[in-house]
Specification:
single chain, mainly beta, globular, five-stranded antiparallel sheet, 5 strands, SH3 type barrels
Amino acid sequence: MEQSRPLDALNRARNKRVLVELKNNKQYFGTLLAFDIHINTVLADAEEHVNGELKRKLGTLFIRGDTITILSPQ
């Protein structure tokens, strides 16, 4: 069985809906368009959620990798 690397998991999530949770406890849901080795991330159709509630729709969103605590496919 081939070992999977962390970036392989992100590659499999590309063009799929993901949850991104930040250090400030905000959550963003969107379609993962791109990322780099620093996990700087670009989401399409992004929505900001606070305390589980939709706060605003943001469209295309760039998130700095050093602010991310969780990046999970939905």
